[in-house]
Design goal:
By secondary structure, the protein is α/β, with parallel strands linked by helices. The chain contains 9 helices and 10 strands. The strands form 2 sheets. A 6-stranded mixed sheet has the order 1-2-3-5-7-10, with helices on both faces. Strands 4-6-8-9 form a 4-stranded mixed sheet. The model has no long low-confidence stretch (mean pLDDT about 95).
């Protein structure tokens, strides 16, 4: 079975991250499939809503499949990696129809980024949101991703989440305004259906104008951050942390 399931359900295009045994950790094939799904949503006039979710109840997306970092040799690899991610995130953010992320379980790292790029998020209290890279891999995010997090959470909460490597609960994410709805797992399907029905009943161009205006406001004046990415991904800490993470060993951070 495919690691990414893309299905047209009437006017709704549903994308399911389908690696439940790996907490739906993302591979490049899955990212490319999501990009193609965004293209499909814009190309098909019958599609009026794009919905992202994860298979099972343990994760939306738990992050990047860390084995993909094993071949990195220097900071340039990190820059290329982040640019590849930004291509997908930017495409998701630019989809003309409303986008909805339905979150159960872990929404971490790459999952957090994809959820942040969607227009609306539904979650259960048991969901966990964060990017705990300060205690796992010692890498960093792109400037665009930092901007997304500050846009949704503000600088104080973004730094709290990243510096302390915190995983916010569903309640904390909802209190911060990151999720539009918080409901119990048993109520999630019905509430999701209600949200989808409301979005499908609204004027498509009005919704597109609102989401595109907000996107343009966010990216206006976005600075370059490749130097930050190159320094961190090229560090000895990062190159020690990847094999240690895969071997489930601890890293002694050196700051270089």
């Amino acid at each position: 079975m495919s690691d990414l399931l893309v299905t047209a359900d009437g006017p709704v295009l549903r994308v399911v991250f389908n690696r439940p045994a790996r907490h739906n950790a993302l591979t490049w094939v899955m990212r490319d499939g999501l990009y193609d799904a965004c293209e499909r949503a814009d190309a098909d006039p019958g599609i009026r809503l794009l919905v992202l979710s994860g298979a099972g109840e343990r994760a939306f997306v738990s992050g990047t499949d860390i084995s993909q970092f094993a071949a990195f040799t220097d900071g340039a690899d990190g820059v290329a990696y982040e640019r590849r991610i930004q291509r997908v995130v930017d495409r998701l953010e630019r989809v003309r129809v409303p986008t909805l992320a339905v979150v159960q379980g872990y929404c971490v790292g790459a999952g957090l980024i994809l959820a942040a790029a969607c227009d609306l998020r539904l979650a259960v209290p048991e969901a966990r949101f964060g990017a705990p890279i300060a205690r796992t891999l010692g890498n960093c995010l792109s400037m665009n991703t930092y901007s997304l997090l500050v846009h949704h959470l503000g600088p104080a909460r973004t730094l709290d989440m990243l510096l302390r490597a915190r995983l916010y609960t569903g309640e904390e994410a909802h209190a911060a305004g990151f999720t539009a709805e918080l409901c119990e797992p048993g109520d999630l399907p019905a509430r999701q259906a209600e949200v989808e029905e409301r979005l499908l009943s609204h004027a498509p161009l009005s919704m597109w104008a609102a989401k595109e205006a907000v996107r343009r406001l966010r990216v206006a004046g976005l600075p370059d951050g490749d130097d930050i990415v190159a320094e961190v991904f090229g560090s000895a800490d990062f190159h020690a942390a990847v094999p240690a993470f895969l071997a489930k060993e601890r890293v002694a951070w050196q700051g270089r």
